[in-house]
Amino acid sequence: MLIDAHQHYWNPARGDYFWMPKGDPVLDRVYRPHDLDPQLKAAGIEKTVLVQAAPTVAETEYMLGIADASDSVAKVVGWVDFENRDDLRHLERLKAHPKFAGVRPMIQDIPDVDWMLRPDVRWAFDALADLDLTFDALGFSRHLDNFLTLFARHPKLRVVVDHCMKPRIRDHGTAADEFARWSAGMRRIARETPALCKLSGLVTEDGEGWTAARLRPYADLVLDAFGPQRVMWGSDWPVCRLRCEHGAWLATARALTAGLTPADRADIFGGTAARFYRIG
Length: 280
Known about the structure:
Elements: E1 2-7, H1 33-43, E2 45-51, H2 57-69, E3 73-78, H3 88-94, E4 100-103, H4 122-131, E5 134-137, H5 144-153, E6 158-161, H6 176-192, E7 196-199, H7 202-205, H8 212-226, E8 231-233, H9 246-256, H10 262-277
Parallel strand pairs: 1-2, 2-3, 3-4, 4-5, 5-6, 6-7, 7-8
Helix pairs in contact: 5-6, 6-8, 8-9
């Protein structure tokens, strides 16, 4: 079974996509399953993981409604307020939904780089582990050390790193130190924690003239550090449309993994996501 482990649907008129640039010709428009389904069918992708794009419980409910009406959406990664302990009731309630997998706080947008280590949000990580829910780790390379501390603090937390922790590929060739810091941090997380990693988001971390050759060192590092059994491919559609269409990124990812065995590729393009998100 082929799985797209990371995609989005949204309606900007809902009013809670605070990060979205108003008037952006790619992002600021409605995206629903009928927009993506033809591309999924063309690629032979049977299931997807629908991931939050707004920091509200209301958006999580919106996504679960889409999932209920869509055979292709296998799981939903939502959001709760980690700064409000009362939101434990939402985690406990949402867990009962068969398509609810876990949550993703939008850490990349939080100014305080140490936010995830604050005592007042620890309850949420404890609750995710206790409830056996997933945690999508969204951040930048500056968050790597703190994520390593967090994952070590919560060894039972089911974690996947989103978008390879967003390395600054657009600075390729001018930021060797940044690549070294990013690669060292990713290797430590892979070596010292059970976290998984999504092979996703790389095209949008590169510039307009992105190439598979420029992405290769980053993909190779992730595959070498985590191994195919801990890597899952995701499109990050429709965000990927800032650089290319769904099929172009899928073809690029297949080219970047062409040297692996069929079993390894089967893990990356379906098996790893199926195990982690418990997609039957």
